[in-house]
Amino acid sequence: MTEYTAGGDPGAAKPAYLIRGVRVVGAAPTDLLLAGGVVAEVGRDLAARGARVVDGDGLVALPGLVDLHTHLREPGREDAETVESGSRAAALGGYTAVCAMANTSPVADTAGVVEQVWRLGREAGLVDVQPIGAVTVGLAGERLAELGAMADSAARVRIFSDDGHCVADPKLMRRALEYVKAFDGVIAQHAEEPRLTEGAQMHEGEVSTRLGLTGWPAVAEEAIIARDVLLAEHVGSRLHVCHLSTAGSVEVLRHAKKRGVRVTAEVTPHHLLLTDERAASYDPVFKVNPPLRTSADVSALREALVEGIIDIVATDHAPHALEDKECEWAYARPGMLGLETALSVLLDVLGERWDLIAERMSRTPARIAGLVEHGRNPAPGVPANLTLVDPAARRTVDPSEQASRSRNTPYAGLTLPGRIVATFLRGEPTVLDGKAVK
Ligand SMILES: NC(=O)N[C@@H](CC(=O)O)C(=O)O
């Protein structure tokens, strides 16, 4: 009887894996044989034939998670994160692909920088790292970056974003939307009208008034989304809205989708769980852009995610070095870690709605990013990118246990459901028994 291996040169053959008795979304427990980089067989009581056996009893198999919004900080701030440390954090969080934001130093606004990030991702080999290119040179909002050269590069960039900054100039935004149509690209907008958020420290509302901190009004986000869906409709191009955070934004999006505008949107785990009341602690770990909003916003975001008005969950994983976070609120950088806790937060927020979780955290983000190897339910012949979750486990978040180089998780001390037991990238484990393999 032939022995299963991962294929290729027999001398260098990688072991095959047999996952026994795992629950695949929407189906009864089954065995999954991973060999040759793909799911080779699905069925009951498969013979191991040399494959390494993983006990899937009580576990759920999801298509590997896909994050459309990750800050990896390399090049430039390797003290906060590297492509490798961020990739490891992602794998431990159940991800098999992440899209790396362009606000590095130098900015990822040329073919050279996006290729560098892409190559570093391949070398780390823990998740597929798909670089996002900047929309404007140096994120300065003045001139379009080399979108075509980045699209034609080895990194094959399809998503462009000035995230951290809004493409505020409507003429430039229109041009960018027009330009990317040629290769079915998408502009991912950080929706923040800068004139309305000058000096802003937190959400503008009752809590900011009480604390005496300058507010970031909801309308600063909603006004840009309203403008951009109209521009996207006019041009017939694809718009993606980053980290949507207000109830009003949901209504604008609902209207745009009803009109058939080609718009998609993401929400972060933290905007689904935390509110602006956290700012009362003056702990800068809760400072983020866009800011934490009210409980009414949180409810609206949850409903919109279930309904599909919001298409996906994206982490906005934003690692920051200690000196950028352990300081006075006003001086702290905005941003929170997200990769290693996202699935647990979603289980807490949605409960065990596995098909919905697979849709919002894997299948749809893969489709938006054009990552055809990802976001597919395990079936014979499908690339073996998947993650195994133990839904019965609970864990208390400890910042010192994060694989990220940074410690700025807003969930420290919080007990959350679910644990990632294993992650497979093209049939090879990046995480086994809850630990990174390399
Ligand atoms: N989301 C954040 O709070 N921070 C982001 C950039 C940004 O959107 O400001 C970062 O890069 O740190």
From TrEMBL:
Positions that bind Zn(2+) 2: D163, H190, H243
Coiled coil: none
Enzyme class, broadest EC rank: hydrolase
Pathway(s) of this molecule: Pyrimidine metabolism; UMP biosynthesis via de novo pathway; (S)-dihydroorotate from bicarbonate: step 3/3
Enzyme Commission number: 3.5.2.3
Cofactor binding summary note: Binds 2 Zn(2+) ions per subunit.
Alphabetized UniProt keyword annotations: Hydrolase, Metal-binding, Pyrimidine biosynthesis, Zinc
Cofactor(s) needed: Zn(2+)
Reaction equations catalysed: (S)-dihydroorotate + H2O = N-carbamoyl-L-aspartate + H(+)
Active site: D316
Positions with a binding annotation for substrate: H71, L72, R73, N103, N289, H320, P334, G335
Residues in Dihydroorotase catalytic domain copies: 60-246
Highest taxon above the source species: Bacteria
List of residues binding Zn(2+) 1: H69, H71, D163, D316
Family of this protein: Belongs to the metallo-dependent hydrolases superfamily. DHOase family. Class I DHOase subfamily.
Described purpose of this protein according to its UniProt entry: Catalyzes the reversible cyclization of carbamoyl aspartate to dihydroorotate.
Protein name as it appears in the record: Dihydroorotase
Organism: Plantactinospora mayteni
